[in-house]
Design goal:
The structure holds 2 protein chains of 2 kinds.
Chain A: E1 3-7, E2 10-14, E3 19-26, E4 30-38, E5 45-51, E6 56-59, E7 62-67, E8 72-77, E9 86-94, E10 101-103, E11 107-112
Parallel strand pairs in A: 2-11
Antiparallel strand pairs in A: 1-3, 3-8, 4-5, 4-9, 6-7, 7-8, 9-10, 9-11
Chain B: E1 5-7, E2 10-13, E3 19-24, E4 31-38, E5 42-50, E6 53-57, E7 64-68, E8 74-78, E9 87-94, E10 104-105, E11 109-113
Parallel strand pairs in B: 2-11
Antiparallel strand pairs in B: 1-3, 3-8, 4-5, 4-9, 5-6, 7-8, 9-10, 9-11
The chains are: A mainly beta, B mainly beta.
Amino acid sequence: KNQVEQSPQSLIILEGKNCTLQCNYTVSPFSNLRWYKQDTGRGPVSLTIMTFSENTKSNGRYTATLDADTKQSSLHITASQLSDSASYICVVIVNSGNTPLVFGKGTRLSVIA
Amino acid sequence: KAGVTQTPRYLIKTRGQQVTLSCSPISGHRSVSWYQQTPGQGLQFLFEYFSETQRNKGNFPGRFSGRQFSNSRSEMNVSTLELGDSALYLCATKGTSANYNEQFFGPGTRLTVL
């Protein structure tokens, strides 16, 4: 069964600190993996998209890594800001089938002053 | 370019009623997907429409249906509402030439069933 597991479920960090969110998946066949940021009451916004051959991709203070062998991805946030408080959702795209996107349940990040 | 718009943003209904939600895609986008988001289950895929035809369907009961119009706008209908249908309903659209099939989400419709 295609699944995406994210950890931790929630996280509280101090402003200015770094953090890393984890995503493990059992999806086959794999097409690509995305990280989304979802502010409260808003729709998700894409942060990074990574294909099978990409190991790392950055978007400002956000850096995503992908290990296709172990089927793990991480999202590292550097020098966190209060505006980083949001849910971060890992999504894996399946290459075929009726449900082309498999979503994790997200990590709820709270950045406090 | 205007983003994906969804109407209404908030909706309160009672059990047994039906509801229709609307999604207007980014100009030029022909694919519209619908998702249900709840705190316990996260985002779950409902269905995808492309050129007025349902292309993919998730594992939801037949009470959930949708359609797409010739201008690519899409509607989602839920009949005989249940308490468990309370959720944020998101639509996402993509263009035919989008990199990696990237989807752009709307702000969602918050449905509360009493």
